[in-house]
Design a protein that fits this description.
Helix 2 crosses helix 5 (about 175-190). The chain has one domain: Hypothetical protein YwqG fold (Roll). The longest helix has 15 residues, at about 175-190. The chain has helices spanning about 5-10, 10-20, 25-30, 130-140, 175-190, 210-225, 265-270; strands spanning about 35-40, 45-50, 55, 70-75, 90-95, 105-110, 120, 145-155, 160, 170, 195-200, 240-245, 260-265, 280. The protein is globular. Strands 6-5-4-2-8-1-11-12-13-14 form a ten-stranded antiparallel sheet. The model has no long low-confidence stretch (mean pLDDT about 90). It is of the alpha+beta class.
Length: about 280
Amino acid sequence: MTPEMRDRLSPFRDKAIAEGIPAEDIERWLTTARPCATLTRDGDGPLVGRFGGPLLLPADAPDPEHPYVATVDLAALPAGLTDLPLPRDGQLVFFAFPESDGYESKGSVVYVPAGTAVVERDKLAWDSFGWDENEEMLDEFPQGPLRATANVSLPFHHTVEQAHEPRFVSLPGHPRSEELVAVWESTRADIAPEGSLQIGGYADEEAVELDPVAVAVSRAVDAVAAGEWDGPVSADATDWVLLADWVAGLDVEGWESSTVHWVIQREDLAGRRFDRTFTSVFWNP
């Protein structure tokens, strides 16, 4: 953790101490902090992409199977905003359907290397049935430029699931994890305000006990077993990272509480195999 991140987390530390949480538990928790980039349509941060707009993809790329959400220009993303080994240029194009239904991936990510020729594509190509409600949903998707703010992220989850009793226990090494998460929830707005789109950091959603990344990994494993997604995949959540979160419920009317998590295996991220991104959705209609 950088000195800047530590200073920024001072209100969290002060509140945790006031709550009577032992200093050693607080300091151990603070070592889990991760840098992340919060992308919003307002603010004065650097312009790093946009929600919506024309869908531009390489001519030989297949039609996406989910709605187009946003494009992020990696060259415009300031270095050090996340701890992810992202390419230093090119674009990431995000797709997602903001409903949860089964274990199949509900979106995708396309990496367009710098200098690649692109053509405009039909944003409704994924909707083979031409349903009016799908077009109406797309009309609700956010539009406009995205600006980046450097932020810090702490875990929103406080339990892990194990194969034996008790099924749910505190995060390993953090016996006060539930109390610390409660402190983070009460101080986060003043430290790292939420935005619609987040790159890196920890996954969040409306109701969090388990890590949403771990839930996504479980769904990815089930999807591979059912032949709905191509392997290989690791069942160990530590082999995966959060690429991005989209709090769709902030932007899309009728999808309140919906949050999209794009997760990827660390080795696929290092190898720039963004087509191996799995998309999980939490939705509580």
